[in-house]
Amino acid sequence: MQPKDLATVRVSNLSPSLGVSRLHSFLDRQNVNATSNISLCSHGSAKDSSLVATVTFQSQSSAKKALNLNGRLLAGRNVSIERGFMGLAVLAAPEDPMLDIIAVHGLNGHAYGTWAHHEDGQSGFEAMWLPDFLPGNVKNARILVYGYNSALLGSNTSVSSVKDFAHDLLQRIIDDRADQVRYALFFGINTCDLG
């Protein structure tokens, strides 16, 4: 699934004092209809005191409309809204995690869309099994995805190698964790969608 097909966006650079209800109100004031599926968690880095949210909308067109809010001021910060999910994206985070589970998509995949299921004809239905089902079974784990430009065809074809992506992923993990120590579990999908 390509990012243009998603009804879900990542909202970052949010104030640590922001709550889900305040983010929901901000979106409502902008006439963007969000579903009740808003996940809000800390970015994870001790150096960066910000929150990141994953917001699923009632439709893909609402998600596209939300992208126009990128850079708007909310609780004293210019928020970033995108659906590319490039780099590390925290989808779920318990209070004191002991494990990071990091999902890495395959070639021509998408950090969020690879793991999501959208039911055609059902407005606002988008299930993403990593944050929707995994935290209930692995209670002390942060759930993350790693996105990179994995395009194989067209004008957005990546010029980076798999080794470059691996180095980028490792550096992002080092930066994200700062001085925190915990186990990491990686898993990926080895498919190539040329469609």
Automatic annotation (TrEMBL):
Keywords attached to this entry: Endoplasmic reticulum, Membrane, Mitochondrion, RNA-binding
Matches recorded under SUPFAM superfamilies: RNA-binding domain, RBD
PROSITE patterns xrefs: RRM
Every RRM domain range: 7-86
Chief localization: endoplasmic reticulum
InterPro entries reported for this sequence: Nucleotide-bd_a/b_plait_sf, RBD_domain_sf, RRM_dom, SERAC1
GO CC terms: endoplasmic reticulum; membrane; mitochondrion
Subcellular location(s) of the protein: Endoplasmic reticulum; Membrane; Mitochondrion
Listed GO MF terms: RNA binding
Stored PANTHER family: PROTEIN SERAC1
Name recorded for this polypeptide: RRM domain-containing protein
Organism: Letharia columbiana
